[in-house]
Design brief:
The complex is a heterodimer of chains A (153) and B (491).
Chain A (H helix, E strand, L loop, with lengths): L8 H19 L5 H29 L13 H21 L1 H15 L5 H22 L8 H6 L1
Chain B lengths: L1 H11 L1 H19 L5 H11 L5 H25 L9 H12 L3 H34 L4 H18 L4 H15 L2 E2 L6 E2 L13 H20 L13 H10 L1 H16 L4 H16 L12 H24 L5 H12 L8 H4 L1 H29 L7 H20 L2 H19 L4 H25 L4 H4 L1 H27 L1
Antiparallel strand pairs in B: 1-2
Helix pairs in contact in B: 1-16, 2-4, 2-16, 3-4, 3-14, 4-5, 4-6, 4-13, 4-14, 4-16, 5-6, 5-13, 6-10, 6-11, 6-13, 6-16, 7-8, 7-12, 7-19, 7-21, 8-19, 9-17, 9-18, 10-11, 11-12, 11-13, 12-13, 12-19, 17-18
Classes of the chains: A mainly alpha (153), B mainly alpha (491).
Chain lengths: 153, 491
């Protein structure tokens, strides 16, 4: 049986959190002491706990009963869905909520090989319009109308 | 007493009962939509009530308030998306239960726990408003700071197998909470030059991303329905029975909700997280929390609805709203010429008691409306993932966008969804992160305020309530270490 490769995910996440907090600390470098007293205390604890987790993970990975954490169940599906979601938001910015939601839902269902595409597409279009109407007309919450459509009309 | 009785009779009038039921139904629907909650529901209601009698308008608001806080648990259980921030902890065990095909049971438990919590809290409001309003005055900045610290102390006990991961996760939450405008010094901190971050990171955006969108990614990755190959088992009544079977947890969480509801600034989100962690730490099967333990649904749901009644007390007694929902409710009261403050009970007691009774009756309305609706809702768990993944994603995006109306928040939600996805895979306790994020601003602001007043940290032990809370903090923080030490010694 092929042995699972260690991803050191726990240590990578600890390093990411430390990096994030370090970026925050650098961003707040010019602030007066009164404004950063409390955050500095928080950042120090993050740094200490982060180093501890990294050391702990490396130590534990050498143990005989260590089970490596696998970050992905299906890497391809993960990357595709993340790409689709990011694309959805970019299209939403350009074309607005209704069009982007219809495109995103149809593309996702198509990628995952949904059988009843026609019925699904009609349902998505009706649902998107219904949600838009409810939010804008009943709840007075305006959903994105889209940069391009705004310029065109 | 006569006014209380008159209020009861008024609330029981058929037309008023109809208003309560309509309000509860609307509230459940609004609460189930991520990003919207009781605040939006009551705000939208205000213009519709201009021509109404004050009692009817308030009964409608009572229904929306109870319904929305409960409604958020439906999506939390079925899709892992908290409908309102107060339902975040419900996702931890509600969603895993749905994945095991026990969605009916989880929905039944959340509905009953919400009704029980809301009922006792509303009863407190009805009977002890004037007494509790005096207690509220004892809670200043030092007490609020210590309350937040006790909440943060729970991080140690909720860390599970690795304390270091729990602390790292919790303090990461505290660090994220530092982003934005500092209320004490007035400086913008850690915004990376973005104007969108000046108001800080919206809790709803983080919650929807970490718990909702990350679940959609998992479903897409695994290419399965929520319930997977398991069949929908159990019934709503199993959940109803569980609430009474685990009555200690229901009662404990209700009391916690009532107390935190009174405390200004603590709010429903903190109450549900603390009720969850308290239930987890006290349970014999604590290791099953997070994997689908029904107690993990009962505790937060009883607590968040239990904050409703008592959270209104500071608003009514002093005219100081303790939460955005209370502020909107105060607006509704004032539009109908009911002015909150010390003279409220002498001037508008009749209408007010009708409202209090309305809050009690809406708890029954939750069950009457909920039971038939939930049977259909639970079927969501067997909907094909090809439909569910885009549906959850679109709902999450609407939820993140509608909280402030910025597309930036949608990108932020995706960022936290990806972080949440990997943190979960790496077995970091997300409950600690959420606790840090919720309690961070309360802890910092009140610490700085207390420090300005006292000039040092002596307020922690010179005031009776803070001293009591300090002792509680030490006990809460030390208990997991003592437990571990005892276990090792017994081996």
């Amino acid at each position: 049986m092929k042995e699972k490769k260690n991803s050191y995910l726990e240590a990578i996440m600890a390093a990411f959190i430390m990096f994030f907090v370090a970026a925050m600390a650098i961003d707040g470098f010019d602030l007066p002491m009164d404004a950063i007293k409390y955050p500095i205390f928080v950042f120090c604890i993050v740094a200490a706990a982060g180093i501890f987790v990294i050391v702990q993970t490396i130590k534990a990975s050498k143990g005989a009963d260590y089970k490596p954490v696998q970050p992905f169940e299906n890497r391809k599906n993960f990357l595709v869905i993340c790409g689709l979601i990011i694309g959805y938001i970019i299209v939403m910015y350009l074309l607005g909520y209704i069009i982007s939601s219809i495109i995103f839902a149809i593309l996702t269902a198509w990628y995952f090989k949904y059988e009843h595409m026609l019925a699904f597409s009609i349902g998505v279009a009706i649902a998107s319009l219904g949600i838009y109407y409810c939010f804008v007309k009943l709840l007075y919450i305006f959903l994105p109308t889209g940069l391009l459509l705004n310029k065109l009309f | 007493m006569t006014e209380m009785f008159q209020g009861l009779l008024s609330a029981l009038a058929p037309i008023n009962l109809l208003y309560m039921f309509v309000g509860t139904f609307v509230g459940i629907v609004i609460g189930a939509l991520p990003g919207l909650g009781a605040t939006t529901g009551i705000a939208v209601l205000i213009p519709l009530t201009f021509g109404m009698e004050p009692a009817k308008a308030l009964l409608l608001a009572a229904g929306i308030y109870q319904g929305a806080i409960y409604g958020g648990s439906i999506t939390a259980v079925l899709l892992g998306i908290p409908g309102t921030p107060t339902n975040t902890a419900t996702c931890f065990d509600g969603y895993p239960l749905s994945r095991k095909g026990r969605g009916y049971e989880a929905l039944g438990a959340s509905m009953t726990a919400s009704a029980v919590g809301g009922f006792f809290s509303s009863l407190c409001l009805l009977l002890f408003t004037q007494l509790i309003s005096k207690l509220v005055l004892f809670f200043g900045a030092p007490e609020q700071f210590m309350m937040a610290m006790v909440g943060l102390g729970v991080i140690a006990a909720s860390s599970g197998e690795s304390l270091a991961k729990g602390v790292l996760s919790g303090f990461f939450g505290l660090a994220v909470a530092c982003i934005g405008y500092d209320a004490i010094t007035g400086y913008d901190r850690f915004t990376f030059g973005s104007v969108y971050l000046m108001d800080g990171v919206e809790f709803m955006v983080v919650a929807v991303g970490m718990f909702g969108l990350s679940q959609a990614i998992v479903l897409a990755e695994e290419a399965r329905t929520i319930a997977g190959d398991t069949k929908l088992t159990g019934s709503l009544m199993d959940g109803v029975k569980a609430v009474f079977k685990y009555w200690r947890i229901t009662l404990q969480s209700t009391v916690l909700g009532i107390v935190l509801g009174i405390t200004p600034g603590a709010g429903g989100s903190a109450a549900c997280m603390l009720a969850y962690t308290t239930a987890q730490n006290g349970a014999e099967d604590k290791e099953t929390f997070g994997t689908g333990n029904i107690k993990g649904v009962i505790a937060p749901e009883a607590a968040n609805n239990a904050t409703i009644g008592t959270a209104i007390i500071p608003t009514l007694a002093f005219g100081i709203p303790g939460s955005p929902t209370a502020a909107v409710l105060m607006g509704l009261l004032m539009i109908h010429n009911i002015i909150p403050g010390p003279r409220l009970f002498t001037e508008s007691s009749g209408t007010l008691y009708t409202f209090f009774w309305g809050l009690i009756f809406t708890c029954f309305a939750l069950v009457i409306i909920g039971l038939p609706l939930l049977k259909f809702f639970a079927k969501v768990t067997i909907v094909p993932y090809q439909i569910l993944v885009p549906a959850i994603t679109i709902l999450c995006c609407i939820g993140a966008y509608s909280s402030r109306g910025y597309l930036f928040d949608v990108f932020l939600m995706i960022f936290f969804a990806i972080i949440g996805y990997f943190l979960k895979k790496a077995k970091y306790p997300l409950v600690c992160f959420v606790l840090g994020l919720i309690l961070g601003p309360t802890a910092e602001t009140n610490l700085m305020r207390s420090h300005i007043i006292y000039g040092n940290l002596s307020f922690m032990y010179t005031r009776p309530i803070t001293l009591g809370l300090l002792i509680m903090l030490i006990v809460v923080t030390a208990s997991p270490f003592v437990k571990k030490y005892k276990q090792e010694k017994s081996k």
